[in-house]
Design a protein that fits this description.
Layout: H1 23-31, H2 36-55, E1 60-64, H3 70-77, H4 81-89, H5 95-108, E2 116-121, H6 124-132, E3 138-141, H7 151-157, E4 162-165, H8 174-181, E5 190-196, H9 202-210, E6 213-217, E7 222-226, H10 230-242, E8 255-265
Parallel strand pairs: 1-2, 1-4, 2-3, 4-5
Antiparallel strand pairs: 5-8, 6-8, 7-8
């Protein structure tokens, strides 16, 4: 079956985010060589460590577009993406037993003591699983592109000390980032976003600058995954060229690539 394209130009995988557990999600992403959460892991750990060093307390981390709690699982369980995916795709357990198994794994984990994880996503089933499994401490089911958060959602978002993402920029824009950044009117969270090169970070950076942030693009180009179809490849290459970005040696070789942008409040 052809993979449909999202309006942003990327392939749309909406169907795999609506399942009661992550098996189909990890199976599909594994087929495409999905790598970005694992490549991001050491950089996100570094941000967490720096926050602890500077502020003196372990941060609450908000993961935008968290799906089934992938980043939280990699960080909390200190595991690799292949091992994490296999723990689902090779399991014959029912959903309830998978949840119980994951809760046991999280309780036994010793990585990142004191760090809390909040997940935000448009998929209620994915959030429900990650919360029930103990991978996420709190969840926000919201589309902040369309509307302001509710009072309850804003209260949860306001507890975030570090905001991260590893692929949702493009689906979400500066509208979402500003609403998160200003959830607490008196405090700005740190941010670290892996952003596909086809989108860039300019409009978000400008809005964050106006809120008192300064942003650095960190060195490196990070593989996200292989193209899901020829149509996606053609659309992405066309978008890059239109935006004046040379895909030679990166996207031209058959995969999506991202850059890391770190934004911190000047104060």
């Amino acid at each position: 079956m052809p993979v449909p394209l999202h309006t942003t130009g990327k392939a749309s995988f909406d169907d795999i985010y609506s399942r009661p557990d992550p098996r189909d999600y990890y199976a599909r992403m594994s087929e495409l060589g999905y790598r970005i959460p694992e490549l991001a892991k050491p950089y996100l750990r570094e941000q967490i460590s720096e926050y602890l060093s500077v502020v003196g307390v372990a941060p609450t981390v908000l993961d935008i577009g968290c799906s089934y709690g992938v980043n939280a699982a990699l960080l909390r369980l200190d595991t690799g993406l292949t091992q994490l995916a296999g723990s689902y795709t090779e399991s014959v357990l029912g959903t309830g037993d998978l949840i119980a198994r994951d809760r046991d794994r999280v309780r036994a984990a010793t990585a990142l003591p004191g760090v809390r994880f909040i997940g935000m996503d448009a998929s209620a089933p994915a959030l429900d699983y990650a919360r029930a499994a103990g991978l996420l401490d709190s969840v926000v089911h919201a589309d902040l592109e369309a509307a302001d958060p509710t009072d309850e959602q804003r209260a949860i978002l306001a507890t975030a000390d570090l905001v991260i993402s590893t692929g949702c920029i493009g689906y979400v824009t500066e509208k979402t980032l500003v609403r998160i950044a200003t959830a607490d009117p008196d405090r700005r969270p740190w941010m670290a976003h892996f952003v596909l090169r086809m989108y860039g970070f300019g409009p978000i950076e400008a809005e964050l600058d106006a809120l008192g942030y300064r942003t650095r693009r960190m060195p490196g180009d990070f593989t996200q995954r292989r193209f899901a179809s020829d149509a996606e490849r053609e659309q992405v290459l066309d978008t890059l060229t239109t935006n004046g970005i040379d895909p030679t040696g990166l996207e031209s070789e058959g995969s999506l690539y991202a850059n890391l942008y770190v934004s911190r409040p000047v104060s």
